[in-house]
Amino acid sequence: xxxxxxxxxxxxxxxxxxxxxxxxxxxxxxxxxxxxxxxxxxxxxxxxxxxxxxxxxxxxxxxxxxxxxxxxxxxxxxxxxxxxxxxxxxxx
Length: 92
Ligand SMILES: [Zn+2]
Ligand SMILES: [Zn+2]
Prior knowledge:
The chain is α+β, with helices and mostly antiparallel strands. It contains one helix and six strands, in the order ββββββα. It binds zinc ion (2 copies).
């Protein structure tokens, strides 16, 4: 009845397992997604099933805007494509 570590995929024995978010980790493998520092039951924050340390949890109210993943760039590309299509229609 041994389970696999969600982070490294290797077998986790009861003595070293950490059950969090319905997943099993080695205690050593439960790390912040950003800086890889080792977390524990008390120090971690979870978002979308991923563990973060307090400093890197994306929704920390102390650091208002840390959610810049380049989403705005995709919108710009779409606008450019639409403009090109419109120009072709005018030439025809
Ligand atoms: Zn592991
Ligand atoms: Zn971190």
